[in-house]
TrEMBL record:
Belongs to the nitrite and sulfite reductase 4Fe-4S domain family. Residues 148-304, 404-544 form the Nitrite/sulphite reductase 4Fe-4S domain. Coiled coil: none annotated. Keywords: 4Fe-4S, Heme, Iron, Iron-sulfur, Metal-binding, Oxidoreductase. InterPro entries: NIR_SIR_4Fe-4S (IPR051329), NiRdtase/SiRdtase_haem-b_fer (IPR005117), Nit/Sulf_reduc_fer-like_dom_sf (IPR036136), NO2/SO3_Rdtase_4Fe4S_dom (IPR006067), NO2/SO3_Rdtase_4Fe4S_sf (IPR045854), NO2/SO3_Rdtase_FeS/sirohaem_BS (IPR006066). It holds the Pfam family NIR_SIR_ferr. The keyword DNA-binding does not apply. Residues 79-138, 326-391 form the Nitrite/Sulfite reductase ferredoxin-like domain. Gene3D superfamilies: 3.90.480.20, Sulfite Reductase Hemoprotein, domain 1. This is Sulfite reductase (Ferredoxin). It comes from Acidipila rosea. GO terms for molecular function: 4 iron, 4 sulfur cluster binding; heme binding; metal ion binding; oxidoreductase activity.
Amino acid sequence: MPEATAVAVKETKAQKMERLKREKNPWQVFDEVRQFAREGRASVVPEWASAYFKWWGVYTQGDGVGAVGGKGGEGLASEYFMMRIGIPNGILRADQLRVIADLTRRHARNLADITVRQNIQLHWLTIDALPEIVDTLDRIGLSPRGACGDVVRNVTGCPLAGIAHDELIDASPLALEISRTLIGNDEFYNLPRKFKISVTGCSSWCSYPEINDIALTAARRDGEVGYILRVGGGLSNEPHLAVKLNAFIRPDQALATVRTIAEIFRDQQGLRESRDRARLKYLFMREGWTAETFLAEIESRMQTTFDPAPPEQIPDDVYRDHVGIHAQQQPGLCYVGASVLRGRLTGDQLAAAAELAERYGTGDLRATVMQNLIFVNIPTARAGELVRELGDLGLRVEGSQFWRGAIACTGTEFCKLAITETKGFTRWLVDELEERVPGFDQQLKLHVTGCPNGCGQHWIADIGLEGKKIKHEGRMVDAYYFCVGGAVGRHAATARPVGYRVPATEVPASIARLLTQYQGQRHVGEDLRAYFSRHTVEELRAQFAGEVLTAVATRDQPQGRAPQAAD
């Protein structure tokens, strides 16, 4: 009989990524990037382009068409790169921001974005510029290391750490220590997937603990301040709010506890079988873990038993953005929160912001998860003057509800996974809504995401818009699918899809119809969240459409892998 012919089994995406990670720790071989820089873009090997660059906060930039321009749900890469600069706890100095502004003007076509994890993101970078940028950031105490990849991402925290009147504890030293301990640590270069941590000592939970893999929120127990622990939060295409564990974490236990959870995640070989189900949340969603079994695993590894969690005050605020002028705990000083529409700034604006922070305050700034900037340590008597200068700079301290609540992901402008353009659309949408619904008086989180992977966090928005393509008047155009009623805090819930999808050009009119009906029908004191809660999906769909409509097909699922570049 003839010999059997062996059939080669093609690697899955997960198997390929796991093999690449076993073969090389990207943090140890940055000299290879220096060689690419010397030899030019064509010298970049596929393994770096598809994987290893991400460990240095870098990924290939899309060609502007997005996912529809490629195959398998992923678009084509251009010759350029994106880089995300990690800013632990969002804490920035003016001298650091000035350097970032210079890099933005020289290497990124004068364009930068504040992300939803307190990073600053640059685009249009060439291969020869990458070593210079990394070395320059290293000299000012910042780095893109770990801002992407299967690693601990930028550790977020309250941007008012150390200055807020209502904070229980300044948690920023802990956030910075976690960042120093886990990011760049060879023990944690190979996690199953990205891993997000939030630490806050404030009462407003402004870093969104509900959607992080690990979240520590301050709590008081009999005069002692410690932390409540949550695990397994995340959005993407299958949202899951973090699970509270019945444990009181003392400050001296916090770092070891976070490290232990990272080790638990690292050790889950089952999570490595599929890139789409590799996040910590899937231990709860698919593997049968519970709050009790997770806590037992932590305690077993740490050889300790935590005290039970005390009662906590869950915040009721919607924005949690700290926009406006507010007194600090330091007498005579205030902070000024400036709303940055879509998080987009030019290098010139970054440089001007650094100059204003030094001229009016101590040169200290903070980035926020709502893509904004906060100027801290400002003498109260000078705050009004600063506000006027910020307005001249294009940053609003007293913007409309639409301006203040808008969030946008990167979109097809740069992202290979996106379906729709988002940044320009969001700017136009805000302008349209300000004109169509003037004087709208309710807090409104309006999040725009360019694909089902949800980097724009539409699942926790009052109104979330998810990018689609539909055929309209004989051609394929950008469109958006509507979700409503998402929230964090006391009313935490993921948004409800309402079965309504329209071309992007019709989105402002649709939202205006719903908001106008809300204004006319709301009960006394009824906010938008409560209004959504007492209406069915069918009723809300009709209010968006202006007529009773049958639901469109259910949400499309992502075609490609969840983006490594996603914040």
